[in-house]
Amino acid sequence: MMFERFTPEARQAVNHAMAEARRLAHQHTGTEHLLLALLADPDSGTAQALRGIDHAQAAAAIEAAVRRPCHGEELDADLLSTLGIDLDAVREKIEASFGPGSLDRAPFRTRRGALISGRHLTWTPKAKKALELSLREALALKSKEINTIHLLLGLFREGSGLAMRILVEHGLDTDAIAARLRANETP
To answer: pTM for the full model?
Structure first.
């Protein structure tokens, strides 16, 4: 499997991307979540390479670009309390039975109609492609491991995900950044 080649930092970034998708209550992990993961530590090489955008700015741009799916109207806690229902108590009881965060995302159906729990996140095709391209970047740079710089180069090389749109909208010259990163990664 490709993930065996990932450095601990790159594995952490992939895990952080999935956590970002959950935090934003998105149904898939996309290139935008990988971007957030690469910007999470402002002192990292990837965050330094992406000067011109930080984690907070990227998160705001993602929230503006992505519409949350409608799963019905939000429950009004005050209205429920007038009926004698304590929403916090209900949440605690459900999380005790089904695990923490079980109510954070609603279950959804795949295109084929299969029901997916709200906790499982799949990768979008563009995010998968970016991960595959990070392997190609590592190989092209004669590296035996895939690091976070290779992940960023994979995002750039994929070129059409939400992450790239956000970077371009913030005025980053991804071609120049990629050239600089490749020059610094060459043995």
So the answer is: 0.71
